[in-house]
Design goal:
alpha/beta; pyruvate-formate lyase- activating enzyme; 12 helices
Amino acid sequence: MPGVEIVTFGCRLNAFESEVIRRAAGSAGLGDAVIVNTCAVTAEAERQARQAIRRARREHPGARIIVTGCAATLAPARYAALDGVDLVLDNDAKLRAESYASAVVAPGPPPPLPLPLPPPLLSPPVAADPEGRRVRAYLQVQQGCDHRCTFCIIPYARGASRSVPLAAIVEQAGALVAGGVREIVLTGVDLTAYGADLPDHPTLGEMARQLLAAVPELGRLRLSSLDPSEIDAPLWALLANEPRLMPHLHLSLQAGDDLILKRMKRRHSRAEAIAAARRARALRPDVAIGADLIAGFPTESEAMFQRSLDLVAECSIAFLHVFPYSPRPGTPAARMPPIDPAVVRERAARLREAGAAGLRNELQSRIGSESAVLVERPGRGRAAFYAPVSVDRAHPVGSVRRMRLIAATGGSLVGVPVT
């Protein structure tokens, strides 16, 4: 039976939005179609998206080919001109069922009537984590970005920062919990900017505190990427005092050298990054730290890179995302003196090696300790501090069990129930 196939590139937010797209396309009655949800962070991501579009046309000659995501938002004409593309949608349109009505060609129930465009992000998109099978869900509470880091094209694709009002977040979170979700991850493009555009300007920490109070049945709340310079006092207090906020912070660091951070137009220093990691551990000793780092930013010397490499150990980063620098046309960094691509690749590899060592150290340090583990699928769970845990397949999916962590193998821990 023909159906809707979605090919996703890029960040987790894009992956989560693909699940929203799937529901929107289904509501519109879309049948045989391939939707390519593109990314614009790197040139390689765009190359892979174009390759996927060509492959989709070859393998699905009768399907409608729809292209969306950040790359399509930034250059719609370029993607519309590709052979076989039937429809191009920007990042706002891709989440609405009526956007797919024009692509409906198969007989079936009529699509919903077009609706007036709502204010941006009036209600929060939500999607299940593909790994968590609906026991772990992602709730998008913020969209867009007002900052202009010199390497980043995403603000041009996602627009200005805007926030979902608390009442809408609470309503959706309550519905998710009622439907069996045990853990919610709050997501956004610039999550720590939450609330600046809302009346009374609530902060991310204030919103999270009120959300937990309003939905007492929610057992686990987790946050996606945070700017270390914008973590507010209520959020620090919540980390220290609220056991339902998971002990896991993912920091948007990008570099470990102050001059490179300045050229990136970041808002934190190396010292502030280290201080944020240390403060988190002082407030919550069982916290685990994740981070993003870019390898080979223009003008980066070996000594500058070494400071980024050293930051992995200094912050005890366990969950590291490494991005080889890729020039994005139209960004200030694209006009800066570049690093040899071979050097960029080599530095990215060294960062990944450091990240792998950081994960091994983290997992080894947890052996013998206990953690509440959410069983996300048969034989697999996730510790409160984010690490994957192998468990007995007899534990029901969706259950949360206190586990003793007895071994580390293959990038995950092994857990047995605490009796």
